[in-house]
Input
Amino acid sequence: MSNNAFSSILEKRKADIVTAVIRLVDKVGITGLTTKLIAKEVGFVEGALYKHVDSKTGVFHIILDASAQSIEMVAGDIAGRGLAPTEALIAWFDFVVSFLEDYPGIYRILFSDGLYAGDRTLFDKFKGCMLDVKSRMRAVIEKGMESGEFRPDINPETMAVMYLGMIHTTFTLWTVFEERSRSYKETARPYFEGYMRSLCLPAGKTSSGEVSNG
Output
Protein backbone atom coordinates (compact mmCIF):
# COMPACT_ATOMS: atom_id res chain seq x y z
CA MET A 1 0.00 0.00 0.00
CA SER A 2 1.10 3.59 -0.59
CA ASN A 3 1.81 5.95 2.30
CA ASN A 4 -1.65 7.44 1.82
CA ALA A 5 -4.12 5.24 0.00
CA PHE A 6 -6.65 8.09 -0.10
CA SER A 7 -4.42 10.45 -2.08
CA SER A 8 -5.72 9.16 -5.40
CA ILE A 9 -9.33 9.82 -4.31
CA LEU A 10 -9.18 12.99 -2.21
CA GLU A 11 -7.25 16.23 -2.45
CA LYS A 12 -4.12 16.21 -0.33
CA ARG A 13 -5.37 18.02 2.78
CA LYS A 14 -8.53 15.92 3.01
CA ALA A 15 -6.50 12.76 2.44
CA ASP A 16 -4.18 13.79 5.29
CA ILE A 17 -7.15 14.49 7.57
CA VAL A 18 -8.83 11.17 6.75
CA THR A 19 -5.61 9.27 7.41
CA ALA A 20 -5.11 11.13 10.69
CA VAL A 21 -8.67 10.32 11.82
CA ILE A 22 -8.27 6.62 11.01
CA ARG A 23 -4.97 6.56 12.90
CA LEU A 24 -6.45 8.36 15.90
CA VAL A 25 -9.58 6.19 16.07
CA ASP A 26 -7.33 3.16 16.28
CA LYS A 27 -5.66 4.74 19.34
CA VAL A 28 -8.51 6.49 21.18
CA GLY A 29 -11.70 5.08 19.66
CA ILE A 30 -14.67 6.96 18.22
CA THR A 31 -15.68 8.60 21.51
CA GLY A 32 -12.14 9.75 22.27
CA LEU A 33 -11.76 11.52 18.93
CA THR A 34 -11.94 15.32 18.98
CA THR A 35 -11.36 18.00 16.37
CA LYS A 36 -8.52 19.29 18.55
CA LEU A 37 -6.79 15.90 18.35
CA ILE A 38 -7.38 15.72 14.61
CA ALA A 39 -5.90 19.15 14.04
CA LYS A 40 -2.85 18.35 16.17
CA GLU A 41 -2.30 15.04 14.32
CA VAL A 42 -2.44 16.76 10.93
CA GLY A 43 -0.39 19.77 12.07
CA PHE A 44 -3.15 22.40 11.92
CA VAL A 45 -4.49 24.83 14.44
CA GLU A 46 -8.02 23.70 15.22
CA GLY A 47 -9.67 26.59 13.39
CA ALA A 48 -7.81 25.77 10.16
CA LEU A 49 -9.29 22.28 10.17
CA TYR A 50 -12.72 23.70 9.32
CA LYS A 51 -11.42 25.04 6.02
CA HIS A 52 -11.32 21.43 4.82
CA VAL A 53 -14.06 19.62 6.79
CA ASP A 54 -17.21 20.96 8.42
CA SER A 55 -17.18 18.73 11.50
CA LYS A 56 -15.87 15.51 13.03
CA THR A 57 -18.93 13.71 11.70
CA GLY A 58 -18.24 15.20 8.29
CA VAL A 59 -14.90 13.37 8.22
CA PHE A 60 -16.69 10.05 8.72
CA HIS A 61 -18.90 10.83 5.72
CA ILE A 62 -15.78 11.55 3.66
CA ILE A 63 -14.26 8.23 4.79
CA LEU A 64 -17.37 6.26 3.78
CA ASP A 65 -17.54 8.04 0.42
CA ALA A 66 -13.84 7.41 -0.19
CA SER A 67 -14.24 3.76 0.80
CA ALA A 68 -17.03 3.33 -1.76
CA GLN A 69 -14.83 4.91 -4.44
CA SER A 70 -11.91 2.69 -3.44
CA ILE A 71 -14.06 -0.44 -3.80
CA GLU A 72 -15.13 0.74 -7.26
CA MET A 73 -11.53 1.35 -8.30
CA VAL A 74 -10.34 -2.05 -7.08
CA ALA A 75 -13.27 -3.78 -8.77
CA GLY A 76 -12.38 -2.07 -12.03
CA ASP A 77 -8.74 -3.08 -11.71
CA ILE A 78 -9.59 -6.73 -10.97
CA ALA A 79 -12.11 -6.87 -13.83
CA GLY A 80 -9.59 -5.29 -16.19
CA ARG A 81 -7.03 -7.98 -15.42
CA GLY A 82 -9.37 -10.71 -16.64
CA LEU A 83 -8.76 -12.93 -13.64
CA ALA A 84 -10.33 -16.35 -13.18
CA PRO A 85 -12.80 -16.53 -10.24
CA THR A 86 -10.28 -18.08 -7.84
CA GLU A 87 -7.68 -15.46 -8.75
CA ALA A 88 -10.26 -12.68 -8.38
CA LEU A 89 -11.18 -13.77 -4.84
CA ILE A 90 -7.48 -13.91 -3.97
CA ALA A 91 -7.01 -10.40 -5.37
CA TRP A 92 -9.92 -9.09 -3.27
CA PHE A 93 -8.51 -10.83 -0.19
CA ASP A 94 -5.07 -9.28 -0.76
CA PHE A 95 -6.58 -5.82 -1.16
CA VAL A 96 -8.86 -5.97 1.90
CA VAL A 97 -6.26 -7.52 4.21
CA SER A 98 -3.49 -5.14 3.13
CA PHE A 99 -5.79 -2.14 3.52
CA LEU A 100 -6.96 -3.15 6.99
CA GLU A 101 -3.40 -3.88 8.08
CA ASP A 102 -2.28 -0.42 6.93
CA TYR A 103 -5.38 1.33 8.32
CA PRO A 104 -6.77 -0.82 11.15
CA GLY A 105 -8.67 2.13 12.61
CA ILE A 106 -11.05 2.08 9.67
CA TYR A 107 -12.48 -1.18 11.01
CA ARG A 108 -13.60 0.63 14.16
CA ILE A 109 -15.19 3.32 12.04
CA LEU A 110 -16.96 1.03 9.61
CA PHE A 111 -18.36 -1.29 12.26
CA SER A 112 -19.27 1.28 14.93
CA ASP A 113 -22.92 0.93 15.96
CA GLY A 114 -22.66 4.10 18.02
CA LEU A 115 -21.50 6.11 15.03
CA TYR A 116 -24.55 5.22 12.96
CA ALA A 117 -27.17 5.42 15.72
CA GLY A 118 -27.81 9.12 15.17
CA ASP A 119 -26.93 9.40 11.51
CA ARG A 120 -29.07 7.38 9.10
CA THR A 121 -27.29 8.82 6.07
CA LEU A 122 -23.95 7.59 7.36
CA PHE A 123 -25.46 4.16 8.09
CA ASP A 124 -26.86 3.97 4.57
CA LYS A 125 -23.41 4.71 3.16
CA PHE A 126 -21.90 1.93 5.26
CA LYS A 127 -24.67 -0.46 4.28
CA GLY A 128 -24.15 0.44 0.64
CA CYS A 129 -20.44 -0.36 0.86
CA MET A 130 -21.10 -3.75 2.44
CA LEU A 131 -23.84 -4.66 -0.02
CA ASP A 132 -21.59 -3.59 -2.90
CA VAL A 133 -18.76 -5.85 -1.77
CA LYS A 134 -21.18 -8.72 -1.12
CA SER A 135 -22.72 -8.43 -4.57
CA ARG A 136 -19.30 -8.37 -6.19
CA MET A 137 -18.24 -11.48 -4.28
CA ARG A 138 -21.47 -13.19 -5.25
CA ALA A 139 -20.91 -12.36 -8.92
CA VAL A 140 -17.40 -13.85 -8.80
CA ILE A 141 -18.68 -16.99 -7.08
CA GLU A 142 -21.51 -17.40 -9.59
CA LYS A 143 -19.01 -17.06 -12.42
CA GLY A 144 -16.88 -19.78 -10.82
CA MET A 145 -19.90 -22.06 -10.55
CA GLU A 146 -20.80 -21.48 -14.19
CA SER A 147 -17.27 -22.24 -15.35
CA GLY A 148 -17.01 -25.40 -13.23
CA GLU A 149 -14.23 -23.90 -11.10
CA PHE A 150 -16.44 -23.91 -7.99
CA ARG A 151 -18.84 -26.53 -6.69
CA PRO A 152 -22.31 -26.48 -8.26
CA ASP A 153 -24.09 -27.20 -4.95
CA ILE A 154 -23.04 -24.08 -3.03
CA ASN A 155 -25.30 -21.11 -2.38
CA PRO A 156 -23.54 -18.04 -3.85
CA GLU A 157 -25.35 -15.60 -1.56
CA THR A 158 -24.37 -17.58 1.53
CA MET A 159 -20.77 -17.93 0.38
CA ALA A 160 -20.55 -14.20 -0.36
CA VAL A 161 -21.74 -13.40 3.17
CA MET A 162 -19.28 -15.95 4.56
CA TYR A 163 -16.48 -14.18 2.67
CA LEU A 164 -17.31 -10.96 4.53
CA GLY A 165 -17.66 -12.91 7.76
CA MET A 166 -14.22 -14.44 7.30
CA ILE A 167 -12.69 -10.95 7.07
CA HIS A 168 -14.67 -9.76 10.10
CA THR A 169 -13.69 -12.77 12.22
CA THR A 170 -10.02 -12.84 11.30
CA PHE A 171 -9.63 -9.11 11.97
CA THR A 172 -11.04 -9.66 15.46
CA LEU A 173 -8.71 -12.61 15.93
CA TRP A 174 -5.73 -10.55 14.82
CA THR A 175 -6.60 -7.50 16.94
CA VAL A 176 -8.00 -9.07 20.12
CA PHE A 177 -6.58 -12.56 20.45
CA GLU A 178 -3.19 -11.96 18.87
CA GLU A 179 -2.92 -8.24 19.69
CA ARG A 180 -1.39 -7.71 16.23
CA SER A 181 1.72 -9.67 17.15
CA ARG A 182 2.21 -10.63 13.51
CA SER A 183 0.89 -9.44 10.16
CA TYR A 184 -2.84 -9.60 9.57
CA LYS A 185 -2.24 -11.48 6.32
CA GLU A 186 -0.44 -14.24 8.23
CA THR A 187 -3.37 -14.51 10.63
CA ALA A 188 -6.05 -14.48 7.95
CA ARG A 189 -4.41 -16.66 5.30
CA PRO A 190 -5.21 -20.15 6.72
CA TYR A 191 -8.86 -19.16 7.20
CA PHE A 192 -9.03 -17.78 3.68
CA GLU A 193 -7.45 -20.94 2.30
CA GLY A 194 -10.05 -23.02 4.18
CA TYR A 195 -12.79 -20.85 2.73
CA MET A 196 -11.43 -21.33 -0.78
CA ARG A 197 -11.28 -25.11 -0.29
CA SER A 198 -14.98 -25.04 0.64
CA LEU A 199 -15.73 -23.40 -2.72
CA CYS A 200 -13.63 -25.58 -4.98
CA LEU A 201 -14.35 -29.02 -6.36
CA PRO A 202 -12.42 -31.87 -4.73
CA ALA A 203 -9.40 -32.97 -6.71
CA GLY A 204 -10.32 -35.46 -9.42
CA LYS A 205 -14.01 -34.53 -9.60
CA THR A 206 -15.91 -32.67 -12.28
CA SER A 207 -18.74 -30.19 -11.79
CA SER A 208 -21.24 -32.96 -12.61
CA GLY A 209 -19.92 -35.01 -9.70
CA GLU A 210 -18.15 -37.57 -11.87
CA VAL A 211 -14.62 -38.72 -11.13
CA SER A 212 -12.13 -37.40 -13.64
CA ASN A 213 -9.66 -39.84 -15.19
CA GLY A 214 -7.32 -37.02 -16.07
